[in-house]
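dumping this here before i forget
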Amino acid sequence: MNYLENALKNKKILVAAHRGVNGGNIPCNSLECFIAAVNQGADIVELDVSETKDKKLYLLHPGMEPVHFGWNYHGGDFKNMTSAEADKIYLANQDITETQYKIAKFDDVLEELKGKCIINVDKFWDDPEEISSVIRRHGMADQCIVKSNPDKNTVDMLKKYAYDMQYMAIIRDNKQITPEFYDSGVNFVGCEILFRNDSDEVVSDKFIEELHKKNKIVWLNSICYNYKDVIAGDHIDDKAVLGDPDYVWGFMAEKKADIIQTDWTLLCREYLESKGYRNK
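structure:
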């Protein structure tokens, strides 16, 4: 039984912390926000890997340099910086003010989280060869999940670089998962389902049941990074923390989600446990 299967057996529903647990003075994608996520009971942490010009891996969401760096930002993309330049930058807090926390190195975060939780490595497709090499060097392939759209290029990339890592397909249409995909040779463990309306076939009980019958995991998101580009209809964290968690996290639990990704890790975990959806 691998790390993910064991966690599901013990907890029933897993809570994924979107970019860790951040707020106040603790920035997202920092080493400290992942420690906070584990302390709040996250089973999975989602992180964004970016690469410097000299091919060193750090945690940063591409395109969000002004938010991540705050007053340290002087224009330009992170990918055009050297690691020496990156090491001098302190991250910004939610008030866009400099903190005492530096940009986290991928190596350091892997070592900190080793044996503590599952790691969803986002932006994996930017440099799958180097990212998978680093994960493997730490002996953590079984602890990591990689995700992307399930197209032919992805299958070829996974076979070449991430053959020993758990892969979840990001889908908005259930027809993206063809019968051939199940036998494509990748370590396909489940689907991250994105939907606009509750009536979408991709989030139907029938399709979710089909996935479960094939021993595939279902991942739903209550995060809302852009209310104009919904990924779970209106079942968003905002509504949960403003007074209606049944409509959000309860809906996803009743949909038989195996994983719920949220920006409110502690509240989501406590709700699922209080309702009996998740084991303590």
